Structures are given as structure tokens and as C-alpha cells.
Amino acid sequence: MTTLDSSDTTPEVVVDPNAVSVTINGKVVAARKGEMIIAAADRTDDFIPRFCYHPRMEPVGMCRQCLVEVVGPRGPMMVVSCMTPVADGQVVNTATEGVKKAQEGMLELLLANHPLDCPVCDKGGECPLQDQAFSHGPGESRFVEEKRHYEKPIAISENVYLDRERCILCDRCTRFADEVAGDALISFTSRGNNTQVMTFPDEPFSSYFSGNTVQICPVGALTAKPYRFKARPWDIEHVESTCTTCSVGCRTVVQSSRDELVRYQGVDSQPVNWGWLCDKGRFNFESINSKDRLTTPLIKDASGNLSATSWSVAIDSAARMVRTALLSSPQSVAIIGGARGTNEDAFAWAQLANALGVDSRDSQLADGLPPQVFSLPQATIADIDTAKTIILLAPDLKEELPVLYLRVRRAAEKRTGRVVEVSPRATGLAGKAWKKVHVEPGKTAAALRALSTDAAFTAQLASGSVVVIVGRMNLAESEESVVYALAEVLHMAPHATVLPVLRRANVRGAITAGLTPRNGGKSTAEILEAAAAGKIECLVLLGADPLSDVPDADLARRGISGARNIIAIDTFITQSSALADIVLPAAAYGEKEGTTTNIEGRISNVAQSITPVGTSRPDWMIAVELGAATSHDLGFASYNEVHAAMISGVSEFASAVDTHAVEHDGVIVAHPTPITLTRADGASIERNSYDYRAVVSRKLYDNAIGTAKSPSLATLGVASAIIVNPLDVPRIGAQVGESVRVTSPRGTIVMPLQESVDVLRGTAWLPINLGGSDVRELLDVTKDVIDLKIEKMS
Amino acid sequence: MDEWKGSVMTAAIRYPHATGFVAGDRPKIVTSRFEHADSFTLERFLATGGYAGLRKALERAATDVHEEVKSATVLGRGGAGFPAGTKWGLTPQQVFPKYLVVNGDESEPGTYKDRLLMECDPHQLIEGCLIACYAAGLSQCFLYIRGEMALAQERVAVALNEAYAAGYVGKNILGSKFSVDIVLHWGAGAYVVGEETALIESLEGNRGMPRLKPPFFPAANGLYGQPTIVNNVETLANLPWLMVNGSEAYTAIGTKTSPGTRMVAVSGHVKNPGVFEIINGTTTFRDLIYGAEFCGGILNDNELKAFVPGGGSAPWFTADQLDLPFEASQVGPAGSMLGSGAIMVMDSTTDIPAAALTLTHFYAHESCGKCTPCREGGTWLERILTRIVNGTGTEADLQQIFEVGAMICPGDFPNASNEKLGLAAVPFPYKMTTICFVGPSAFAPLHSAITLFRSEFEARLVKRISIPVTAVSTPSAVLA
Amino acid sequence: MSRLNDANIKIALEIISHYPRPKSALIPLLHLAQEQNGYVTREAMVHLGELVGVTSAEVYGTASFYEMFRFEPVGKYLVNICGTMSCALMGAGDLMHHAEQKLGVKAGGTTADGMFTLAHAECQAACTEAPTLQVNYRFRYKVTNSDFDTLIDDLKSGRLSDEIPSHGVVARIRQRIPADRGVGAIAPELATENPAWMNGKAAL
Lengths: 794, 480, 204
Fold this sequence. Notes:
Number of strands of chain B: 8
Distance between the termini of chain B: 86 Å
Radius of gyration of chain A: 28 Å
Strand order of the largest sheet of chain A: 17-16-27-26-25-18-19
Largest sheet of chain A: 7 strands, mixed
Oligomer: heterotrimer
Largest interface: B-C, 106 and 78 residues
Shape of chain B: globular
Order of helices and strands of chain B: HHHHHEHHEHEHEHHEEHEHEHHHHHH
Distance between the termini of chain A: 78 Å
Strand content of chain A: 15-25%
Strand content of chain B: 5-15%
Structural class of chain B: alpha/beta
Number of strands of chain A: 36
Helix content of chain A: 25-40%
């Protein structure tokens, strides 16, 4: 790089002090200090065989397959290229006779005890051991002895099977579990030739990230139940896509065989997921294949039952409902949802709403944040790697945005940044936090204000860049309280950037595309309240299920029953769509193409891999058809047209014109003009000392439709319970495990009592949307906090 | 616990006196107290000049003490023979804390000296640890004793408790500014933990699997990622004498490149097996095996067939090498190593393939399982050799041993010269595809045994008579 | 109920306090667990994981690497006969054969009365005294067949109970660092100063 500072001086050459140059097989390769030879060689055409090396984990030099020769002062030295750093002027040879012999020997040794059951092995055809045995192996084995035998395969968790005979002991899965996921539930056991990977007896490998070990296993030792014997690699079609299970936006490969989804694999995207996926995102393809999917439009018949009908009848009837409602007033039509679809879906529906004059549309389900958070200086996921301080003002990332959790955990683990956890209870990152601010709901902003006198804390904030991860850490606390808390943080650290974490997959895209109240239109809670009051003639549920998702059961129930007509666009019959007058079957993930926007505003593509089930079609197409039937030409009729219209029509999406980028690492949306938050008075809301303040949050495996309809995931959830601090248990008088009566101003439910030191005294943690009692019966979205009575049953 | 204390200190412990180390009129640096039945007590230690070396050291600046050790060239006695003073100097200047880890995990086949030093003179070792910590600025010392050595653990525990109470260890030692804790740590049965990086892994509570050097050179990146000195028990036991008598007196013994004394265990087919403190660099193998003050000759006056000069990992020597001195700079070029001071003698009655099998089995069994060549190759070698020893091996098996060996150690493998066989020496060391020496060690005894005694292996092979198929005529009677 | 008992928890905490990082205490603590129950129980491993802050899988991963730890009950006396080179040269094979006859079990087996487990062992660092054996890690040197018989009879009759504790107990004395004498273990990130005596002056 050269810089010119003024016209009359000679150019000053700035040399990168970390740049080195090495010669690999006669070719000069530019590398950086600290980089390993194998990583530098990966930028050339010369492939060095490897098994234990993985670019996202610490090298161990265990399999010895990547031996190469480095020319040293005493002639060529054989070294492992995965643990030997590059040095300037280094000469490396990866294909000399000596290297070839060593690599062949290593493969012969690895194959000595490896069963030759490739024809019945899931990995056959995509197996690094198989491939490298062909490319770098000796061609035949001289090992005539009996091979090692173990029981095969054994289930080490609900979804992962281990075949120890196939294992080549590369330490990838065990390193991943410990180093990346922090769930060291598998380990090498025994020693020497008897070494094996195992769990502790009766303690399964129940990690949210267990599927990654299957993906990185270089042999068929680890296989995943949802894929076992489903397909052969040569029968699989691959498309690169983005996971929309949550809003992290992990890059994936969607794989199908015979027009059925069979597997998702993580793609190593530097800005987002580094190849990792959570098990929920990895295995919920099963729900797309579910036989419960809606395949045809449904319409309420004379007896009040939903029965199948044609698209033309359904669209005509829907159009009539909309037109009739518009006759009374555009305010009597409302749209809830849109966050489960693509940017194009949301854009098309926003355009339709604009054409119809419908201002009440909201893609958040009374569990989100005000869209103004997108107008604060934004952080990217990758900023976590370099931030000096990471402030969590967010839900438990491990439960809600698991792959983001991995990134934050790594920053703490590698000590690149310090984590400050602000939360009403200890989250999955508490063990990694430098500072924990555990505070009762309603008092967060005040507690943060008090921190401004903590010298160590303010010094830490001043020490460098600060990323604030902000979201709804408690659904029983108003969104305003989060904004107030965020305002306090930004007051102390004005240089901080913000990563808003709204969990639903494309909520940011939907808001950006226009599915958010405008011109005084109503929010979801307001729409439901209006519906309850009989003011909504036509309610459109765009992939939304208020009866399951809105954290206020009473409000949702009153709203859904009060709406005069309901049109639901969905992939399944849900609690809410079951009550609709018309149900239109939507194409699901993998069945349509489009783009999605993740938490950091990164636009990347979702790809079509299979044909939509039955007559289902993408949401955007339904908008176009409904527009036509209501005499509104939205101006697009194909995917390419809606995509182009969106890029030109929504300025934030303009960068998505770079198709290549969108189909790989994605592009970041343009940010609106920054705003500043005003601080509230920071008053804290007091609690009656007999009560317990509710903390409501999600678990990874809950009753979400994608989980419930995926057999491999459906059984992983736990049942509802109320969890209090162990010191509060005696006060309640009930035993742990016993059912207790829980009462809020809204209602009473009965659920088992549990204890955890992660919960603050005087608070009660209620995971939401699980089997058993419905926690939402206790909640009221209009209240700042919810206080509960917990009573022993008589 | 304390309730046991009485029995350990007073019960008649059958004292494990190896013969030999009290005989002869040689200088004694580390075994001077062994002649006393109560050599392990603080009373005896103090009565015989104990902790005088420590006091001398503390009267000097730490850097002076370090220099003294450096100029004495105290070679490491664990196997690699790297000078201790130089090793201490390899730690980065400005990184703290630094640790001392004492390697008392003696388990190399044939080796028997560190256990004696811990059982018979634990205070001498403690004093050595203190001098090392003082000189090299080490903040804490971990004394890692092999798990199976119950008595050594007890003796060192008692000694440490006494030394703490008497102010020799802990805070402000002897009233000075020097403060260090010595923590007794013990293993649980794994040979590979004797390798220094595996020892550190084990001390961190992990599986004892060696780490690759670099980046894990303990001096820079050892225990908890901190600079760490790993020293052998015998190495440290030299320091008190050195402090009292000075480096000149130390280097006056032995040779320039191998000063001082060494403890050597000679076992196997000899008349008087024993552990001897010998003069380094000049005593020859012939002295040790045949000398009257050492082993006094081969058992039953048989012929010497072969001997292992430096622990089970070392390539073998025969009578041709008897006159080599105990000097690394001569033994290496001759095709073997001095290792940990362990000579195992085989007489003419020895079943060579079976003897080699005990060692190959040992290393295959003790493989940690980390590196593929050792984990898979070691066991493979053992299985081929077992077949041969049992009389079911073939010529191809014999060849396969060398093929597998080459996967662990590519290139020429060291061997001793042999006049009768017309072999020239191939110097030590070997190349290896593994992290540590356990893998090569499974091959070393086999390579030596087959190279030197091939006919004994061939005699065991299955003789297949090859009958060309076309030449077989079927008797017509059978066809009918 | 084979987690550590209260007395042993106290000892465990004392052992942990000797190390800059708790996990370093794991092997000594596994010995403590084996001392308590004669072998390392599943519950004890869970307990040790809690005490040093690692998962049970990690505890088992470490424990199963080392041969001294047993995960099933063994005899009161574990008789390890060395079979490595020097002992093999001096008749360890015959001794093992005799031992199998005498005890009526094969190597690896436990006698019906639960008194003895016979095992092959690797080099015990007593090569000059071959053939050797260890009973619960107490040595016997230059063992003849009749020495072996005497040893077994003595063990059976309890004549050696003073010298040889039952399986699980290795060292019978623990290191005690008196509070007023110990420097104390400090996590490495908190001890970043050059030691006080490294200032170029004599310490005394």
C-alpha cells in the first residue's frame, strides 16, 4: 500500500509489519505472521491432506496427516503444517517423496482400524478419509490383523449417534464441544490404542450445538439421526442459503434429494456463523417435510368448518372481505406478521397495504423493540471480535440466538473483550462475564445509572470500543424499560454501537420493508385491542399466530375472537389460523427464493431447493393475487420483478443490488439517520415484598411450530415451571417439584415449582411457550412489570 | 493423614536397599547419605550438612547462583541431557509467574534412581528445588511423583511437612526475602507423563498427552501457559552439593562435557545388579557390567549377548561397544543414547524376540493415543512381533515391521556398529513423525533386535513350502 | 451414596487450595475418591467435577487415562507383577504363572473372596531387584515363588495390615501447608510481578 501525503514528497511505502512471504512448492505465497503453513497453502492449488486441523479451532497436531517438509539450516525437516507457523522466506515442500511416503503411511495407519463399511456409511461419498485415501493414500493396506471392535453405533444424545469403530480420534468433536460450544460433555476416554470418544455414563451430549460435531467429523463416526440413511451424497442437490430459524442469519447449504429436504449444513461465513449452526436450525427441516403442512386453501363452510377450496375461490373471497372492510374504513383492516417470510414477501405485503391504505400493520408481536433502535449507531456481529467491552442488555443468547452466543463466548474465552451481563437472571454467558449486573425487573435503568460511579466499570468502557447487544430480556417487562436502560448505557458510553437482537427471523427486514405501523396506524397490541372492541373488520395474519406468540393470552384471545373476519396465510394450521375464515397455504423455507435481513441488517439470500408443497405459494405472490383481485396492480408478477422493485423502492435495501454478495456473505442495509435516546428519570418500580417479580423468557426448544413439527426436536423441550431462588423456596412452603398456584393481576395458573441459583431472590423465572401451563395467561402487555403470588396448593 | 504418621515413620519398612551404591570409593554427590538407615529424616539431613547449600545460595544474589549452576554444566538427568542452568535461562525475562515442575515420574524401563533419591534423601531434593526456584525466580514448585511410588510420596510428604515447620519452605525462607511453596503432586499411572509437556498436561488435571514443541516449549509456554522449568529429580539433587562445593569442584569430577556424577541402574543378567553413582563421562560400560566394584560380571559367567545402554527406548549395544564411556558425545555417534541412566544386560541365554516383545509391548501399551503413528503403529508392531514370537509369523511379517517402523521413524534408524555382521554405526537421533518419543521407542528395541539377531527371528518364522500349482499332478485314484 | 464424605470434602478443599487452578487437583482428588471407596465411583466423579468446576465427562476423560484408577471394585489387595524387560529376563513370567496357580485366578482376575486382584504391570522402577511386584503399591523385591506364597499367606492372615493398607490408599501421609508458613497459590493472571528476591541482591 502506498500513501501520498503531499505532491512534492516521494511516495512513502507502508509495509505491513505482519506480512511475510513463503515459498510453497516453488510458488511464492503472501501470508501473515502467526498463520499456520496449512492455512497459507490453502490459498494455493496444493492441498495438504488433514483430519484434525479445522480453521475455526485451535490446532492440536494430532492426526499427523499434514506433514510437510520445511527446508531448514540442516536440510529439510518434517513438520506438521497445522501447527507450524509461517516465517518470512520459509521454503515448504508438500509433495516430495519423503512427504508422500509419510502421508501415505499415515493414511495406511488411520485405515488400519477403520472399518471398510463405506457402502452403508452415511459419510460415504463425502468423506474426507475416503477422499484423502484416494488422493493421498497408499492404495492398499497391509494390515491383516483383526480391527478394533466396539458396540456400534451408540446414541450419545437424542440426535447424534457415535460409531467408535469408524472414529480416527482427530479430536475435532471433543475440541468443538469444549472450545467452541463450552459443553464439554464428550471427551476422550481410556488411552493409547483403546482411546475412544465418550460421554459420561447417563449424561448425554445434550448440547444445543451437537449437530456441528457431525458436520465436522472427518469420517462417519458421528451421524445425525434426522439424516441417517436418508440419502447418498451423490443424490443430493445443494443450494447455499440463509437459516431463518432465528435472526442471526447463519449461512447454510440446503440439501434435498428427490424434492425433499434432507439436511442443512453450516457454511463458514466470516461475518456471521463461521460454519456453525444450532441444532434447532440444523434439524428443523423436518417441519418443512411434515405431513401436517397446508397444501390447499381452506375456507369456512356453512357449518363453520374449514374445508378445502380452490385458489380462485379463496382469493376472490378474501378480496371480497378486504373490500367490504375498506368500505367501512381503511382503519378496520389490519395486518399482523410478516417476520417469518423474505424481504420480498414483506415488501409485497407492504406495497399491498399501501395500495389499500392500510396503516395498521406490524411484524412484531408485542414482544419486540421500537424500530428506532435501528437508528442508533449499529454494530455488526463481527464487531464482537474486536470490542473491548460487550454489554449484554439482551435475552439469554444461548437460548434465543445460539450462534451469536458462540461468538460472544469466544470473545470472553479468548479474552479479546470483556462481557458485562445486565439481566434479571444469570444467562448462559454468566460464567464468562467480567461483570454481572443482575437486577430485578423494573430497576435496570436505575441500576445502570448507579454504575456510572463505578470507576472500574467506567474505565473499562473508556478502554476501547463498546458493543451493546440489546433485546427483550424479559417479556414481562415493557419495551420502554429496555429503551431506558439502553439510554443509560449510551449515556455512559457515547461511542458504543448497538446490535439489536429481535429474535424472529426476518423482523428487521419486514420492518425495513414497511410492515410496521405508519401514519398513526396500530401496533399488534393495539390491533388486538381494537379487534376486541369490534373495530377490526378484516384481520390478516401473515404467518403470525397471536394466540401462541403474543405474550398476553387474554389480549390475544379477545382480539382474535373480536375480529370480524380473519385471513390467515400460513404453512400450518395453528391456534390462530384454525379460527380464520380463509386460510391460504404459504410456501415455506426452502420452497421459495428471496432475501432475508439478519439482526445486524445483513441482507443475504434464501434459496429454493424443492417445489412448494401442494398448491402453496410464496407470500409475495399471494399479495400480488390479492392485489389483482382488489384491482391493485402492485407492478410485479415474478420473483425477479418483486426483488428489483424492492431494491429500487426501499432505499435501505439498495445495496442488495450486488447479487453475488447477497448470495454469499451478504450486504449490510443502509442505516437511517442516527438519533439519540433521551434518558428517563430512572425511577425504579417497587415490589410488594410478598410478591415475586416475573421474568419471562424463551428456551431454545419450545412450542414454536418449526420445532413442534420436527420429530427430532419436538421431544427436546421441557415442561413449564416456575423457577425461584433456592432461598425463596422455604418462604413459599412448597417442595421443589410440587405444583404451586401462581397468580398475577391477569390470571392464575398451576405449575411445578423449581429452584435455581441463576434466579434472583424475589423474582421468579417462567420460561414461556413450553408444554404444560401457559405462562402467557399471567401476562399483560400494557404493564411495566408483572408481580406474582406463588402459593402452595391446599 | 496424621493418624498414619506414626506407622510410616517408625514401622519396619523393608528398606529397598539396592546393593551397590554404598560400595566403592567414588565421589558421592547425590547418594552421600544413603549409607545411613535414617537418611530420609530431617535430623540426619541436618547432621550431614543439609540445607547448607540453600543457605549459601541465599547469601548470594539469585543471578550469581544461576551463573554458578550454568558454569557447572549440570546436565539434565531425565534423558535429554540438556544443561539445567541453560534451561533456566530460556524463560522470557518479563513474564511472570514462572513455575518449577519436578519430574519424579520415573518409569522408563530399566531406570531406577529418582525413586531412591526421593525415598532415601527427600530433603536433598527439596533443597535442590529451593535453590532452583531462588536462582531462576520461580514462584511456585510442583513436585510430581509417580503415582505408584507410595513410599516416595510418603517420605517426601513427611519431609515437606518438616521443612515447612522448620522454616525451610514457604514464606520468608530462613528469614530471607525468598518465599516459595513446594506442592507435592502425584500421578496415577501413565508412562508418557514422564515427557515434560505431558507432565504439565497431567499437572493441569488433564489427560497426559504431550503437546507439540513448538509452540509449547515449557520454558516459554508451560504450566497454565506460563514459563515453566521442568527438571528431573536427580538433576535438582545435585544442586545442594554444588552450592556448598562450588562449580570448580563439580567440574573437577567427570569430563568437560559431562561433569559430575550420574546415577546408573544396571539390571538384568548380571551378578550384582544395582544402582551406582558413577563418575560421569569416563566410566565405561565394561566397568559397569564387569567391574568388581559394580556388577562383577555376567550372571553364571555367561557370554554377554547384548545390552540396552540408556533405558528401554535406546537402541541396543553388543560387546563391540563395551569400552564406550558413559558420555553422550560418544554414545550418540555410536548409535544409541544414554537416556535416563539405565543399563539392561542380556546374556547368551536370552530369547531375543521375546525380550524385544516386552519392550515393544510396553511402549504400545503406554502410547497416549494422540499421534496416529504411535497409537496405530505401536500396536501393529506388537501384534506382528507377537505372531513371530508365537511361531506363526512369516518372512513378510519381518519385512512389515520395518515398513511400519518407517511410518513412525522415516529414514535411517540408529544402530550400533557390529564387526561380525559388518554393520557400520548409524548415529543417534532418529527422525520421527510423532510429537514425542514413545512411538519411536516401540520400534527401537525391535529394530536393534532384528538388525543384530535376525537369525533368531527367522528361526521362529513359519516355513511355507511354495508348490507351483501347475506342478501338482492329481493322482488318478483320487479323481476316480 | 459414594460422593466424597464430609471429612474428605475438607481434605479435597485443602488440596484444591494448593493449586493456582482448581482442575490441577483432579488427579489427587481422584485418588482421594478411590481411597474412600476402594475404586472411583460414578457419583464421586460427578462430585469432583463440581468441586473443580469441570464436567463429569472431563473428569472421566482424565481418570480413564491413568491406570491406577479403577471404576469397578477390585480385591482388597491389588497384586501387580512387573513384566517389563529386566523382570522378564529374571523370571517374571514364571512368577506370574505361579501366582495364577496360587491365587486360582488369571491375570486381571479377582479371587472369589474379594481379597486379591492379580494384574500384569509395566516397569515399576525397581529393575535391579527383579523380579518385583507391588501389593497396593508396596514393593516386594527379588520375589521367589515361596516368597510369593508367604506374602499371600501373610496378607490373608492380616500380618501385613500395618504396612499395606487396603486398595485405594496410596500415600498415607498428606502434605500440610501451615497457614502461617504457606505463600499460597495465586492464579497466574494475578501474580504478574517479578519475585521479590530477584532484585540482584542476596536474599539473606
